[in-house]
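User: Okay, second chain of the day. Same drill as before: sequence in, structure tokens out.
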Amino acid sequence: MSTNSESAGPVAALMLPRLNKPLLTFARAVHGALLNNPGFPGPTPPLDVLAADIAAFEDAETKAASRAKGAASLRDAKKRRVKEDLFHLRDHVQSVVETNTSPAAAAALIESAFMNVRKVPKRTVPDLSAKNADVSGKVLLTAKAVAPVAVYSWEYSLDQSSWTRLPETMQTRTEVAGLTSAEVYYFRFRALTRAGWQDYSPVMSLLVH
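Assistant: Same drill. Structure tokens below.
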């Protein structure tokens, strides 16, 4: 019983420069990349809004250099507005690429918007998980489904030498109560499918509460 690590579709990411002038350059590059880009019709916010916010940020940055009272606070507010625009546009780009079934094409679309491509690993389902319930000495067990129809045979042990069997289930989960608190227990299962009995799962240990 093994799990394969797979990758979800590409995700649009923004690597925003921390300094103001590089951030202005980056924002202009995103604006230029999305302008008349057939892959992203009708971006949100509209690109003329982004352009106006970039211009306001640039003007405020120039005025802040004079160290006039309140100029730095105004500059920071305009900077936040540009960053908000960029994050909204990132979300728009992501909403578009998620409709593309080809990971390569989706990645190319993200790059065409002058954004970074980040691959997110899919959450892998463990063969067996064990967790404490809200009652002392009670443990909830969950198995990874091995077939559309199967019988799951559960066992637990204190030493991994002698095993105690639990009632079989048709479901991928069960519970065991009456365990000793503050003891480490070991759990495993195996499934009966149309092909016969499968191998035992990897053993899962848990300190019972």
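Helices lie at 20-34, 47-64, 71-97, 103-112.

User: Thanks, on to the next one.
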